[in-house]
């Protein structure tokens, strides 16, 4: 596999892992956004789902699925593709020994660099998605809301949430990938009786899902305040970050909608890594494993 083929496969795997999982969890995301933007109406998970179904019908639970699919497919391609690129590039810059000793730093730097790019692709779709999901009657679709934002605020209206999005997604992704890599390594080191290469593929994919779920819980907590800000900014015309924080309050900034987001992000991240590694197996690449796997791939690509 050439480097171009390798990165193209990683990007395609990212499309599947992020686009499909986020779209599949649209009902949870819909409720989360409404609990953040309209807390007086949606106070609990059970009650919130009940209100949504009673008022709008079961079909309304997938409101916003199109911008979700488009946005997170684009984000997933850049997130996973560039993560692999930056991870291997930074490893090559440091050299084998230094990369081995500083692998957590490589995972943090690689994921931050990748997410910075991925969020530029995601931001317009996220702005439309939140507006679609938090409108009172759920009657406006993707194109109609997009046209409204452009008419009222111009192109900058699609990117007014970019800074909070970076504030949510970059720490989220840094924790996600660094903790995921660490959990995977420790599972193979301490929990399984045989090396990764000798484990059945079903075991390897199970490790990917379990490590992803654990990583998802951590990054949900870290990124939750910024997630609350994004929901408010994209739901209210003209609202600034300062106004949003003042309106929400510091305690609510960290806690409003957190249990639902932990459930959503844990499931989401576990499924993403499971799907991504399953796609890698399908294309002939190894699943996530100890750092020697990363370094060996880097050396093979340099020789190619």
From TrEMBL:
It is a multi-pass membrane protein. Transmembrane segments: none annotated. GO terms for molecular function: phosphate transmembrane transporter activity. It comes from the Eukaryota. The keyword Mitochondrion applies. Solcar repeats lie at residues 5-89, 102-186. The keyword Mitochondrion applies. PROSITE patterns: SOLCAR. SUPFAM superfamilies: Mitochondrial carrier. It is found in: Mitochondrion inner membrane. GO terms for cellular component: mitochondrial inner membrane. One of its GO terms (biological process) is mitochondrial phosphate ion transmembrane transport. Keywords: Membrane, Mitochondrion, Mitochondrion inner membrane, Repeat, Transmembrane, Transmembrane helix, Transport. InterPro entries: MCP_dom_sf, MCP_transmembrane, SLC25A3/Pic2/Mir1-like. Belongs to the mitochondrial carrier (TC 2.A.29) family. This is Uncharacterized protein. It comes from Picea sitchensis.
